[in-house]
Inverse folding.
């Protein structure tokens, strides 16, 4: 992915997250909120036919309010589908529509269309419930890691992938290691030696299987997880059976009772904390660098005004935005032609504004309002700035939001702003 594509996809993910967050806040008083997932190869005429069918079946709904609400939602979706040609855009599209509760027995009609999600939509889904179906989209937006998985004991082994949140078993092997019981006539010493040899051979076979699968992808991978009972997993790792680059990528070894395919799932469960930690690694490194620059360097900037100025100069290498930032920017031009920007809470009404340079007051209606993250990312995009969204699930990430207003940057060069 080029830097520009990465940037676009960051921005698109942010747009999606915003819509999903909004949709998740809605409730229907009845089973009346419609969600439709359409894969890119689905003919839209088929979708329209499906919606028409649902519309006619909805006439059987007993509650008049729910019936009307469902039919209105379906009509609204059909209207939206008219804007498209034969097929949905790349990766498909998702349509949401329904009468949401706004309190006091009142409802409000909401219709949203999300085009081209980050991953292809796999299958057509029609869903009508008291809330919108957002989980499949949320899964696509989750941070994507790629981890190699190995589970083994002395009898069998499985290797596979963890891609995002999905476990993918790939290969398995079973061993010819003899049990602990020796046959009559064999010397105890000879039996023990043969057994160790067989174990060693099996570990080599498992390592070969893992190397074949992981080594070609090692630069894309985020780590390797190894699971099994003791002492097998320890012997396997201590014996350096894996390719040395993979060996260096091992994030941990975990106790797992089963070593069949289900063991791969158990391994991911057991590694939950390590995976969560890893997900925040980049965020943590960036924030460490920010604090280092803040105290001992001159490449840190923070707060809306300062960061915005630096962005405009093209001086920002990385724009750091708190994932929990919910602000809008209002752009004003006063009667003397001064352009000014004011940062306000997303849920606040647009305030009046006094020009900080000449004191002229500007009417609230004269301000142009925009989401603050959109505004800043847009500025950065034109100047090759990378945007990093920082989680608030660790101390320095929380500080970005509470102490620095959720907006900061690492500079390419010192600007003195
Ligand atoms: Zn002015």
């Amino acid at each position: 992915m080029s830097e520009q594509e990465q940037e676009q996809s960051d921005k698109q993910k942010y747009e999606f997250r915003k819509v999903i967050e909004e949709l998740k806040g809605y409730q229907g008083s009845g089973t009346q909120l419609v969600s439709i997932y359409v894969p890119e190869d689905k003919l839209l005429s088929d979708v329209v036919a499906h919606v028409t069918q649902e519309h006619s079946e909805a006439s059987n709904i007993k509650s008049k309010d729910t019936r009307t609400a469902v039919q209105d939602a379906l009509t609204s979706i059909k209207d939206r589908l008219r804007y498209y040609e034969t097929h949905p855009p790349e990766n498909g599209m998702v349509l949401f529509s329904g009468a949401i509760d706004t309190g006091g027995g009142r409802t409000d009609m909401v219709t949203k269309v999300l085009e081209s999600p980050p991953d292809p939509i796999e299958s057509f889904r029609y869903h009508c419930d008291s809330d919108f179906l957002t989980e499949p989209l949320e899964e696509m937006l989750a941070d994507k890691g790629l981890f190699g998985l190995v589970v083994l004991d002395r009898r069998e082994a499985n290797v596979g992938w963890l891609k995002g949140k999905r476990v993918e078993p790939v290969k398995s092997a079973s061993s010819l290691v003899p049990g602990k019981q020796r046959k009559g006539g064999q010397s105890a010493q000879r039996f023990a030696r043969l057994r160790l040899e067989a174990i060693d051979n099996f570990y080599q076979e498992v390592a070969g299987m893992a190397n074949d699968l992981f080594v070609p992808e090692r630069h894309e991978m985020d780590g390797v997880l190894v699971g099994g009972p003791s002492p097998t997993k320890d012997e396997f790792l201590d014996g350096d059976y894996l390719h040395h680059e993979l060996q260096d990528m091992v994030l941990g070894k975990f106790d797992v009772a089963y070593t069949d395919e289900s063991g791969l799932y158990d391994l991911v469960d057991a590694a939950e904390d390590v995976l969560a930690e890893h997900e925040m690694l980049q965020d943590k490194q960036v924030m460490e660098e920010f604090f280092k620059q803040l105290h001992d360097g001159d490449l840190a900037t923070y707060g809306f005004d300062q960061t915005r100025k630096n962005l405009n100069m093209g001086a920002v290498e990385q724009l750091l935005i708190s994932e929990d930032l919910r602000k809008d920017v209002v752009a004003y031009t006063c009667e003397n032609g001064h352009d000014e920007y004011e940062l306000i809470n997303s849920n606040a009404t647009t305030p009046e504004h006094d020009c900080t340079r000449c004191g002229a007051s500007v009417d609230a209606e004269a301000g142009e309002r925009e989401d603050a993250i959109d505004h800043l990312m847009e500025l950065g995009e034109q100047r090759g700035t990378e945007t990093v969204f920082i989680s608030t699930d660790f101390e320095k990430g929380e500080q970005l939001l509470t102490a620095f207003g959720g907006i900061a940057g690492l500079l390419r060069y010192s600007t003195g702003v």
Observations:
- DSSP finds 13 helices and 18 strands in the chain.
- The first helix runs from residue 3 to 24.
- The pocket of zinc ion is lined by residues 334, 336, 338, 355, 357-358, 360 (CB under 6 Å).
- The chain has three domains: 23-142, 146-279, 282-411.
